[in-house]
Amino acid sequence: MTNSETPEPPAEEPSPVPAPPEATSPTPPTPTPDEWLADAVAPAALQPIQVDSPPIEPSSYGPTRMLAPLLDISHVTEAAPVNPPPAPPRVPAPAAPANPPVVKLTPNTTIGQRGHIPPSPTKAPVVKPPPPPSKVELQLQLPNGSVDKPYDVRKTLTLLTPSPSIEVLSIQRIEGLADLGLKGTVSGREIHVTGTPTKPGDHTITIFCTLRVSGSEVSSHKQITLTVNPDPRSLWKDLEPAPGQPFFKPHLCSERLAKGMVLIGASRRGRSHAHEGKFREDDFRLGALDDRGWHYMVVADGAGSANFSRRGSELACETVCQAIGPHLAGTLGPMFDPVVSEFAREQGDALSRQIRTALYKALGGVAHEAYRALDSLAKSINCPIKDLATTLNLTICKRYDEGWFVAAFAVGDGGVAVYRPGASFPLNLADSGEFAGQTRFLTMPEIMGNGTEISNRIHFALFSSLTAIIGMTDGISDPKFATDKNFTDPAKWDQLWADIGARVRLDRDNPDAHTELLDWLDFWSTGNHDDRTIALMLP
Amino acid sequence: MRRLPIYLLLDTSGSMRGEPIESLKVGLQSMIASLRQDPQALDSVHISVITFDRDVKTLVPLTSLEEFQMPWLETPDSGPTHLGEALEELCKRVDREIVKTTNDVKGDWKPMLFVMTDGSPSDKQKYNAVIPEVKRRNFATIVACAAGSKAKTEDLQPLADHVVSLDTMDSSSFSGFFKWVSDTVAAGSTSMGMTATPPLPPAPPEVYVVV
Question: I need a surface site. Which of A22, A245, A435, B25 has the fewest CB within 10 A?
Fold first, then answer.
């Protein structure tokens, strides 16, 4: 299986970079002649991973089925006032029957979901008229509210079990709403509850009403529970990790590097980690090889439940920085430049393969060094390498006379794309499983020990112009794109660009772009509270 | 938003009548209240309640914690404990309710399953047959709770990743168990990133982890 549960084999001595697969390996997306210099783009060239699961049928359970039965019921007797409330559940009398004696079931008794209308004690049960009831169960259920979210609900008070001799005439008043910031308006048998709840918790609301029971009017009341959810935003804690833990990492990090291109990056500990006093697990690095014109950025996302993934992501990034110089000098050096120029003039399979081979050695080699570094750290601290599990997303870019040459190696979720208004171009495949949170990691020998797996994770393209190259961890791609399909949708990238642009002056000359980016990372998205890391290259 | 689906299978057979069922309600209620205090859970947890005695009833289909309302738990006077049938119903519901990741859809977190029983399955053959089916549903974790002296932990071992037992069926036992469930769920809602099984928090004193 391809997801994260695949048990990683015992760490073996990492082999050197596997030989690049031969031409039989799947061809990666390469811009077609029409695309690479023109502003057209074909994200479709990046085929998403086939997920082996059938489409899910929409649930057939509508909201009406979602209603759980009532929590409490009130009782009314004709002659007597409201029955005493049932004993609290904690202290049931051992010998007491579960139901009050008045409720005796007979074969002819109609039983509601839990309402019992007992037969008349004096008459033999005949079909009609029904026996006068001695007990009534009223029903009214209010859906849960949430603090600071407007509440506007109309509900009618009814009998749990319809009875020809009992009728709900009207609601008199409601008690208990005002304390919660709510208002109840009564109209006949209907209440209309409006307002914005201010107090979280389970609140008891009492509804006073008038019934007609066998011809005479009776006052009654019913207690119901109104649950108000707290505002999740008010519940997040911001805790420091326990002192003395290894591999300290600051919660925030941002950087700007202006060397030819301007590179900016920012990383922020997620709310879920802050809430639990855990370290940030994401990391990133930016860099430039001045003498060769290459720029690079690497973002890494340490796996959520791997013990030392914060160090895994950091070490992977550090190793990339150390290894990228020698590797790029070797294979993407002066010999490479004419290949790109030639490729710009005429794309062909042979040229494309030549570029891919060079990139395989360069990017695959760098990634493999990162893998080896993680493996030796794991051995030195005596933990399985999966305790350092991290994704890796490495992007390089160089300006040629013919355009911007961009290449990426990516393992895991998150992603990278070349952004141009209306024409974004993703440079990685989705690496996700069938359930949320499942992905692949740099620490998996079955990936980093397999030439085809490595090669399939390298993509490149040449662009006549570009606005930015954007790499991110899933802390951003999840809330901003949600699905793999959206990640290939240029409109979604336009939205992201506008979204960032509203908070960050995305300008080469803005010296504060990286700190503004760090602030932007604090955006709110329900259910998305992971670490967030983003890096941009601006031409 | 990604959902963390939690399935609760609760024994409502006749032997649960009286104090046990009332204690169960209290425990469930306090679990819900405590989960509502967890911001991550409030954003992701969805709960379904299925009861089993002679009949199997889905009292609450998968419902967000925000909208969840306590179901009314009832016990018949006596009768069998159809756990096997309940697990069959569970499999059907999981197939219908759980969303898996596709190109167009963001999938749920792996679901979690908690089973509580105070006896042993009366439909033993069905129970044994359905276990592999349950396992195929890819639960992140399956916890079975054997409550009271009559519950047989050995019956639950083949089903669950973790079997816990409660000596008594009073409200402090159940509260302890449900507190533990909610801790497990809360841990799952934040750290289910990659592991198949979320780390189980240490069990409270009332709950014995059966190894």
Answer: A22
Q: Kindly report the average pLDDT of chain A as a whole number.
A: 79
Between CA A154 and CA A171 the distance in angstroms is: 13
Residue bearing the bigger pLDDT, A418 or A91: A418
Query: According to the 3-state scheme, what is the secondary structure of B52-100?
Result: ECCCEEEEEEEEECCCCCCCCCCCCCCCCCCHHHHHHHHHHHHHHHCCC
User: Would you state the structure tokens that stand for residue A450, as one six-digit string?
Assistant: 């397999």
- Which chain B residues are Cβ-neighbours of A527 within 8 angstroms? 1-2, 43-44
Contact residues, chain B, for A529 at CB < 8 Å = 39-40, 43
- Residue B171: its pLDDT value, please? 79
CB contact under 8 A, A304 and B192: yes
What is the secondary structure of A426-452 as a DSSP string? E-S---B-SSTT-B--TT-HHHHT-HH
pTM of the model: 0.76
3-state secondary structure of B157: coil
Closest-CA residue to A77 (of A121, A132, A131, A119): A132
Q: Which of A56, A69, A527 sits opposite B1 (nearest CB)?
A: A527
**Residue-wise DSSP of A166-199:** EEEEEEEEEESSGGGTEEEEEETTEEEEEE----
Across the interface, do B190 and A272 touch by the CB < 8 Å criterion?
A: yes
Q: Taking CB atoms and an 8 Å cutoff, what residues of chain B touch A141?
A: 69
DSSP A22: -
